[in-house]
Amino acid sequence: MDSGLPEYTPSSSGSVLSPGHQSTARYPTEHRYNLVTSNGRPWLTLKVFSKAPASNYLPAFYQGETVTGIVQLSLSTGEPIKSISVQIVGQMTSSVTDVLSFIQLSSMLWTRTAVSGASSSPAAALDKLVGNHEWPFNITLPDECELKSPNGSLEKYPLPASFSERMARVHIQYQLVVTVHRSRFRVGSTLGTVIGYCPIIRPSAPTPARQLAYIENAPLVGPDGDPDGWKCLQPLRIIGSVFSTRTVEATCSLALAEPLCYTRGSAIPCLMTIETSDPQALLLLSAPRSPVVRLVRTISTNDPTAGSVGVKGAKKLPRLGYESNVEEITTAVWWPDPHGSDASSPQRKVLHGEIHLSKALKPSCSLGRFEISVCVPLHSKPSTCVHLPCSHAQYSVAVFCPRAVAFLPESGAEAVLLRQPVVIGTAYAPGPRPRVYSPPGYDDANSTGQASEFRLFR
User: pTM for this one?
Assistant: First the structure.
């Protein structure tokens, strides 16, 4: 194993450490947000501490981390403030009118009837708050949210990662908001920021044969020598013409490395076997630029609803139909089998390949069609149920017709012959880091998303 690379080890409490965690302590980054008076003096300040690389990035948090910060109040004159609270709200937006909260965590920092510590003052006891005050807060995002299915049973599902792209129909966003509640008939004040959240999705350990190849920087052993390390997909029958003179038939078989969960920033190992009795067609179809295998992302929102469905008296708007957004992320690169396992068969060629995964890829996530109980403890009201549309971002490896020179496939060049769902994770599997054996290509611009905003998640 490369001793210069950080490892992933669970803490003694069993909690999961964030990717890239090292024993070397790193000072947290302070993010500061203010509300100012008419003369430009800050009177309400929100400080948030995260592991983002710089203060001009949004605060970024991994699963299991605590959102910590400080709320500061500086009042030159007495204000009739009733309470001060901080909350984290997770929302999914699937249309202009459909904004649904799937998690809401609240913490009361100060109330008029509970004046204590640094915030106590004679003015506060007289219904007005004045002077300088400071309240620290700590809120831990849970790993899961509790969802109520249509039959009434409660099920737990992982919190989805922050997701927002320009052309996407679905956006998932977490907000940290401080609210200053004033007395009756007085408008309150709010100050907040969007925060980034990333779950820990870790593949299971690869087979010992693959781990040994990573340690020794040796070529990967194929399905014949490592059958447990590969998922061999259904063989594909390819029919087409060569040089427009004769019809040929070939069989293409794709194998993907198991487990079918891959960490962004690494690669998906692939193996393609081409078999045909036509020697010329075999040379054409086994050229490294001939096989077309791509990573495809599908974002879909099914049966969306508008308005606060489930809230008594809420107005329901007409339902809107959504089409799935299918996007080709990146294409596999290929090279001849370094083991020469196809030398014994003149009708068979083997290619090794990889699908490079950008560090900025959004991880796989899904939210089913459930009723989510949203508890609002600040106002002591009963839980409100909203109807969440089915939404998910899924990845698959798609096999297209080969694009060989002088070969015309019968089914068309853009035909998708086979799809295999895969999961894109955010943390590396236990054991040695996976190696990339081919030169990396250019990052696909469509897969970068919020990379500039959430640099920590790369």
Answer: 0.77
Go through 61-80 and write b for each residue having 16 or more CB atoms within 10 A of its CB, e for each that does not.
bbbbbebbbbbbbbbeeebe
CA distance 302 to 390: 5
Question: Residue 111 forms beta bridges with which residues?
Answer: 83
**d(C-alpha 329, C-alpha 333), whole Å:** 13
Tell me the C-alpha distance between 188 and 135, whole Å.
18
More reliable by pLDDT, 285 or 447: 285
Cα separation, 276 vs 246, whole angstroms? 14
CA distances from 312 to 100, 104, 138, 373, 376 (A): 16, 20, 34, 14, 16
Give percent above pLDDT 90 in the chain: 50
DSSP-assigned beta bridge partners for residue 263? 425
Give the C-alpha separation, 31 to 69, whole Å: 9
R_g of the chain, CA atoms, integer Å:
27
Query: d(Cα 29, Cα 69) in Å, to the nearest integer?
Result: 11
Three state DSSP letters for the chain:
CCCCCCCCCCCCCCCCCCCCCCCCCCCCEEEEEEEECCCCCEEEEEEEEECCCCCCCCCEEECCCEEEEEEEEEEEEEECEEEEEEEEEEEEECCCCCEEEEEEEEEEEEECCCCCHHHCCHHHHCCCEEEEEEEEEEEECCCEEEEECCCCCEEEEECCCCECCCCCCCEEEEEEEEEEEECCCCCCEEEEEEEEEECCCCCCCCCHHHHHHHHHCCCCCCCCCCHHHEEECCCEEEEEEECCCEEEEEEEEEEEECCCEEECCCEEEEEEEEECCCHHHHHHHCCCCCCEEEEEEEEEEECCCCCCCCCCCCCCCCCCCCCCEEEEEEECEEEECCCCCCCCCCCEEEEEEEEECCCCCCCCEEECCCEEEECCHHHCCCCEEEECCEEEEEEEEEEECCCCCCEEECCCCCCEEEEEEEEEECCCCCCCCCCCCCCCCCCCHHHCCCCCCCHHHC
The rounded distance, in Å, linking the Cα atoms of 63 and 33 is: 24
> Which of 20-29, 267-276, 278-287, 334-343 shows the lowest per-residue confidence on average (mean pLDDT)?
20-29
pLDDT at 377 exceeding the cut of 60: no
Q: What CA–CA distance (Å, rounded) separates 118 from 293?
A: 62
CA dihedral of 48, 53, 58, 62, whole degrees rounded to 10? -80
* The residue type at 296: V
